[in-house]
């Protein structure tokens, strides 16, 4: 900006000097100029021309057509008494060739040039040609020193340099403070991040730093830390459930295996000859082997769902699936009451056998938590036209599920503490299988429960178009 101002000012002051010289040339008596017809007239009228335009700050010279000075203000006798300062006595001159070049120009307009004297002092000169283009007679040179211009420009340069240095210093001071206030939150973030370990995932970055981008970064980082902390907590819970499952499964496996091993030893020692003992042993072995088969089958189903292997899906009427599995459910329910409320011709796109598995597992869960004689289990299906959904609902009047367990009942290996007894609990895999099958069908399952009143499972299938 300073450089631009310097260039503009330089152009302006030089133009001002040219205007002053132009004004002085306009003071020449036109009658004198019009009378000049020969070189003798130039020599005769040179003194009059110089005295007419000379000033304190300008020097004047009359040059002939050969480029030689006829007369200048340092040699001319001025008509007024006041002494003219040195400006009139220092006459900057061009070489004769340059004067001839100016004279030979066709245009009658004034010419301006920068001239230097023998002491390298710079002046600006204006030149006026006498005579027409076909008969050049002389050249009037009026010049003035540019020393004043250089003084002004030098002062201006000093001012610009001082201003630039001050601006630079102020910029450094302000920049340092701005950078300090900008980088301080980043340094604090770096310090906080370095302190974060697996055991300290609850640490968070400050979010109110009064800097939009820093605040956005802090919020994003805190969200990431929260997700990581949640993942670690979830992984920790899964590991705890896995350990619990391994403990329970080991116990469940050991018990039937011990029973089978014990009865086989008894039979080998001669009990096989006793029909009563033989029947007891064989029935016990059959029962325990069934329990083992059930556990293995559930693990295989879960493993298959993890692999997300392709299963064939067709348009199925949900009421037909329920009716097909109803006899098996009736046997499982025993003396409990099993009621159906099904809408006909409500189709879903599903794998028939997997939906049966969902119904059986949820009903088995209801059976385990309802009274063996007064238990009531309702299976309902309906179409929600407004939301284009098919709803399968299974509800009971059992003991209910504690609120703190509702978010975990679909987790693998989970069994409520109140349902860990062999009589009331399985292996904690049934509802996990249900959740996997529901996800594979792009459906959604919700559960509502109230302690002492019962539980309701609702599966929402997208209606087949």
Mean pLDDT: 80
Strand order of the largest sheet: 2-1-5-4-3
DSSP strand tally: 12
Kindly, what is the distance between the CA atoms of the first and last residues, rounded to a whole number of angstroms?
72 Å
Structural class: alpha+beta
* Low-confidence parts: 80-85, 420-424
Q: What is the element string, with H for helices and E for strands?
A: HHHEEHEEEHHHEHEEHEEHEE
Main beta sheet: 5 strands, antiparallel
Mind telling me the C-alpha Rg? 55 Å
H/I helix tally:
10
Fraction of residues in β-strands? 15-25%
- Can you tell me the overall shape? rod-shaped
**Helix fraction?**
40-55%
Describe this protein's structure.
With 465 residues, the chain is an alpha+beta fold. It has ten helices and twelve strands. The chain has helices spanning 2-25, 30-35, 39-53, 96-104, 147-195, 212-268, 275-307, 318-333, 352-368, 430-440, and strands at residues 58-64, 69-72, 111-116, 122-132, 135-145, 314-317, 337-342, 347-350, 376-384, 389-396, 444-450, 454-462. It has a five-stranded antiparallel beta sheet, sandwiched between helices. Strands 7-9-10-12-11 form a five-stranded mixed beta sheet, with helices on one face. A two-stranded antiparallel ribbon has the order 6-8. Helix 7 (275-307) runs parallel beside helix 10 (430-440) and helix 8 (318-333) runs parallel beside helix 9. The two termini are 72 Å apart.
